[in-house]
Amino acid sequence: MNIILMGPPGCGKGTQAQRLQDRYGMIQLSTGDMLRAAVAAGTEIGKQAKAIMDRGDLVSDEVVVGIIVDRIQEADVQAKGFILDGFPRTVAQAKKLDQVLVEKGIGIDHIIELTVDEAALFARIENRAKESGGDVRADDNAETLKKRIMVYRDQTAPILPYYDGAGRLEKVDGMASIEDVTQQLEEILDRRAEAARRA
Ligand code: ADP
């Protein structure tokens, strides 16, 4: 099963992707995690990406598309399926992804948006910054967060009508508790599995 999780910074995508990975076995592909790994490893991509990420801007479409397109063709991901978390983040990325998926004959089973209230988002990220104590992400401060939410609004949110227009978008209330959100997601995923069993 292949899934795309959509939603703004701090909406809980990462947490939920992890839970779905544990329960269903698809592999969580977080472009943010992959880029942070590249930064930590000091690769060429990492060196270019660091400053961009620290100020809350988006790394170039070319770079992230390259990373994801390579990864989704690897044997483990092909065998187990994937959960895209943090990608696509621009309409150009979404279109490129569609093109590659068609070329490779890979289908997406669900595109799910975690919907949230913007004011609550700020509260959540401020908490996240506090809770993680000294181990704070370089881009997890209130200022960069604002920037990331603006970037989401300007560059990422336009993907939603693109998917919705094609009748492909499902929505889950991301303001519910972590447990409730997981349950809503599981209902969506299990519904499909149940339908397949009956067919
Ligand atoms: P969050 O969802 O908390 O904002 P992520 O971990 O998904 O954070 O991403 C952190 C940063 O990594 C982004 O602010 C951006 O700079 C970069 N990044 C991640 N995914 C993409 C992407 N698909 N396109 C461009 N930049 C990305």
What's the N-to-C terminus distance?
17 Å
Order of helices and strands: EHEHHHHEHEHHHEH
- Strand residues, percent: 5-15%
Q: Indicate the mean pLDDT.
A: 92
Number of strands: 5
Q: What's the helical proportion of residues?
A: 55-70%
State the helix count: 10
Provide the domain count. Answer: 1
User: What is the CATH class designation?
Assistant: Alpha Beta
Secondary-structure-derived class = alpha/beta
List each distinct ligand once: adenosine-5'-diphosphate
Biggest β-sheet: count, sense, barrel?
A: 5 strands, parallel
- Fourth-tier CATH superfamily name: P-loop containing nucleotide triphosphate hydrolases
The parts where pLDDT drops under 50 for at least 5 residues are: none
- Compute the gyration radius: what is it? 17 Å
Query: Which architecture per CATH?
Result: 3-Layer(aba) Sandwich
Globally, the shape reads: globular
Architecture overview:
There is one protein chain. This protein has a single domain (3-117, 158-198), classed as Rossmann fold. Helix 4 runs parallel beside helix 6. It is of the alpha/beta class. It is globular and about 50 Å long. It is built from ten helices and five strands; from the N terminus they run βαβααααβαβαααβα. 62% of the residues lie in helices and 12% in strands. The mean pLDDT is 92. Strands 2-3-1-4-5 form a five-stranded parallel beta sheet, with helices on both faces. It starts with a strand and ends with a helix. Adenosine-5'-diphosphate binds at residues 9, 31-32, 35, 52-53, 56-59, 64, 86-87, 89, 93, 139, 148. Adenosine-5'-diphosphate binds next to helix 2 and helix 3.
